[in-house]
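Q: I have four molecules that I believe assemble together. Could you output structure tokens for the complex as a whole instead of separate predictions?
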Amino acid sequence: MLRIRKAPMLAGALLILVFPWIASRVPAISHYPDLMVFAGVYALITIGLSLLMGYAGQISLGHAAFFGIGAYVSGVLTTQYGVNAWLAMLLGALAAAVVAVAIGAPSLKLRGHYLAMATLAFGIIINIVFREEARWTGGPDGMVGISGLTVFGYALDSAGKYYYLVWGIVAAVFLFTVNLIQSPTGRALRAIHASEAASAAMGIPIARYKVIVFTFSAVLAALAGSLYAHYMNFINPATFDLFFSIKLIIMIALGGMHSIWGAIIGAIIVAFLSLEWLHYFEEFEIVVYGAVLLLVTIFLPEGLSGAPAKLMARMRR
Amino acid sequence: METFPFLNQLLQFLVTGLTVGAIYAMVAIGFNIIYNVTEIINLAQGEFVMLGGLVMVSVHTSLGLPLLLAFPVTVLVVTLVGVLLDRLAIRPIRKPSVMTLIIATVAASIIIKGLAMIIWGKSPYDLPAFSGRTPIDIGGVIIQPQYLWVIGFLVAVAVGLTLFFNRTILGKAMGACADNPDAARLVGINVRHMVLLSFALSAAIGAVAGLTLTPIALMDYDRGAMLAIKGFGAAILGGLGSFPGAILGGLILGLIESLSAGMLASGYKDAYALIILLAVLFIRPSGILGNLEVTRFKRF
Amino acid sequence: MAAESVNDPILEIEELVMAFGGLTALMNINLRVPRGKIKAVIGPNGAGKTTLFNIITGVFPPTEGLIRFNGQAISDRKPHQIAELGISRTFQTVELFNSMTALENVMTGRHLRIRSPFFGCGLALPSLRRQEKSLKQEAMALLDFIGLAAKSEIMAGALPLGERKILEIGRALATEPQLVCLDEPAAGLNETETETAAHLIQAIRQNGITVLLVEHDMKMIMDISDEITVLNYGEKIAEGTPKEIQRNPLVIEAYLGQGGGFEIG
Amino acid sequence: MVKKVAMVFLVCLAICGWAIQPALAEYTVGAIFSVTGGASFLGDPEKKTAEMVVEKINKAGGINGQQVKLIVYDDESDATKCNLLAKKLITQDKAVAVIGPSVSGLSLAVVPVFEKEQTPLISCAASYKIVHDEKTGKPYPWIFKTPQSDSLAVEAIYTQMQKMGISKIAIISVTEAFGASGREELLRLAPTYKIEIVADEKYGPKDTDMMAQLTKIKGFAPQAIINWSVGPSQVTVVRNWRDLGMEKITFFQSHGFGSRKNIELAAGAAEGVFCPLGACNIAELLPADHPQKQVTMEYMNDYKAKYNEPLSSFGGHAWDAMNLLADALKAVGPDKAKIRAYLETKKGFVGQHGVFNFSADDHNGLTKEAFQMVVVKGKDWALAN
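A: Yes, here they are, computed for all four components at once.
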């Protein structure tokens, strides 16, 4: 079940590699690489979140806050203190890690809905800070003038170039996570999800693992935040509000909670739905979005990543 | 200009806080009714409140039904939406895990919000206050008549539910489902009906909260989510599943918001309320009146 | 730590009291588990046997009293720390990792014996890959020992109850414990399965691992136990060899008084 | 299996792609408004207005004989979407120029896009930061905006206060971009007008009640209160002010109050409230010789006839932006650089919110005279003396 096969991974990588070329040939989708940059940013967050939710069984409704911490640390340090963008990215991830440990250690003792509320509250509080500390963050209006990224003097100043940066990072994180799941650590996480009592009896330090995974997912979210900030050259608090946290959960649910593939598929689908496809429905957009989500929940409780297996099972019958 | 003593200010904060808190408490009660029977947090709870306000606007202001008639009609309509929510979004899920059920309620809340936008548009609506808008002045503390209605309805809902759960067979059956669905099934209670009933009941309470709130704060299609979150916070603060907890949690949340808005930096008022909520959870992981042993047995 | 003598008991419980709210589940229990033996705890339902297990393995701290493992007080330790010290357990309700294969369950049991650095795992370091390979072999050997080698790739949740119970014992053994606490390993099993379980428990003792056993199947208890303690309503009413216990009038009364059958094989 | 899914996906995309290739219109103009989401009170009338204006132009034979194709996108008050839509309008829809976005924050979010792609943008949002590059101290070359800057509204209010002898005030604002930038200007300009701010309170856009903040303000006994917000909360705050018996403390609303709907919603509580408004809100009150009398009356009548709802001043920003752009297209044709140059030198453009005089140093082109101070009297606006 958990053996993650190499063939789909290679196919996925190839697809990602040639996608901009394909898109450039088709006028109607020529802007899709631009969308894919955001999908990649979301995917970075959902990979971590899927590890936390699908494998360690812990919910978080506050990950938009870590996304924001990464973005704001990058934004503030580069624009106001002239810090190198890559260093700022690292510091953003570090800041997120520190906050994650501080909030995760007490929160992850909570169960179920209580944990959901605690992370939700945390997310809202951080968002209020982004909004109120206008000296640093620019307040609700947002923050302008965040520079783009350069690699050895080569500017990543177009969707095409940034696309490869973001998806390169996604690929690396994906590989890392796949390794992790198939390692003793991954087994321990799944064990915790299956039975905390039995895991503890096997000597697995549950609290520590939960905090580690929470922190890892926070770091990934912060990294995504930095990438977002340098691509948009602009950030505002509304991007990192609790509705984005809920949107992340929707991505995970649509893609499939128990699969890292699901995290990526969910991120791409939701990015395209909400940023592009649903626009065609105009005022019915919100209703259609809800209906899609509801239908997937009803008919594909395992998410879209579970669909091919389900389809094959039905065909065999 | 006349002076305005601090004590008066404080009392004013309390009055305001209790009123807002009463709304949160009603939303929290709605959460608890469904949670107790199904273990689901129904994130569409706030949409019931929004619908309560907007449907009332339609039947009272637009159709011109008198208040006394518009009230039951509104509650009935929203209750129907609650029933539909259960039938169309919750029951069709074949392998229900708590997480998928919650996602389903999120989806439902998005749909309801979208439909409300199409039906009522994006502008806010007003309702006439139930007994006029002349403020009552008690020793310098101002009370809007509508405040009394809000608090009155909270009391009515609390008393009504207490009687329902303790005195009626249906209520007792629902209570049994909440304690142990398997055992309830064994003694012949139709758990599905109870789930349906819980959605209907909590939609009705949401509607009451919405139609009493609208004369104070107006109503528009986009209000539901924020009210749901405040109500969820209240339910958690008080202890999930506990009705006295919901009322306590709601009132405390309202009071903190009002007091911190009045006495501290008002931009951070929501943050203060949430920080206190977090602090309570870290000390009492199952809320003020929640039972840790019970939460352990709940699936999620 | 003082040198452990073969004659010292591996586990000592002194004046243990456990109260849940107003209800006293265990009252002044004294218990010694001799090293390298099979010790059984029996008693009617509600006697407090599982509670005793939960306290020993750190699920909840005792209200009063002392627990010493190899001479070291452990009553304030967390479950995973107690596992680390060398006490492993099974559960009355079978707590396997159902979405994992039998092999993975046993591999997870070896968590304490392997290294699992977070970043190393993510980077799939060669040393960890080698470790994983030998881990698999060790786990297979253990599955072989408990007789489930053929079922290694089957999901634990899909196994029949008898094999699930055996697998759970195997997983407990994978931690390389000095003391293994088995909570009703034969409950719900048929005669042949019970026999398999009994053989396995004896084999465990032969490997030098002490067994603490809670069980209702009196035939099995009497066959394999070296020493038996009887609890009733949270109190210890008797202790001794199987033969002594069978003859103890208090024990007979406790069981008969409760209306339950006390089959002595 | 993922491969299969991917293949199907790709094929779908390709089919969609060829099927809906955009047909090239003569003059393609883009628009981004917050038609839904938190700022829909801005985007909704703006979209309606822009569509109405274009319809009128096309009915009259278009510009230089060419029809205008207006592509309106809804950014849903979301920065990410806004950014994507801006790029899509420029690169894919080949818009010669874009009007919008509705919100300051989102306008700021797309400034770098338009600067990079060298495409004119006429924003419909208020903040002066949109047309002020802090690095150069001058406007961004490609960015213009039609709404009066918040600072002009603040100056109009402060000027009125000086006339009324008010010097001790409290401010209260919503914790959204609109309220935050207004608050910033209120704080910044207060010393210039010798006004002391004794209380600075905030509330959330979805708050049900502002009694606590107002009670606190009451304790400071200021001469006036300025509220800076939009949407339902600005109605609630006026009602609370009335309920608390604070009529002696004069209430000033921002220009965000500029819709008669708000007076109606306030249910009598808005009586006596001051508010700076653009000419289009009070077209019928303007003297016949007012330069904007004609255009504002025309807009008001057209809008009411077409949409059967009261005019909101925000729609006027889109009217100004769309007509400015039409004017430029008529003069120089669909050439981005020429449009930009034309707009920068445009003088005396009579719009809904004032007479615009652009220059290289001013890409807004308005003065505080663009605002009229009005007061609510008998459930309608009346010019304040």
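A: One point stands out. Residues 17-25 of chain D have pLDDT under 50 and may be disordered.
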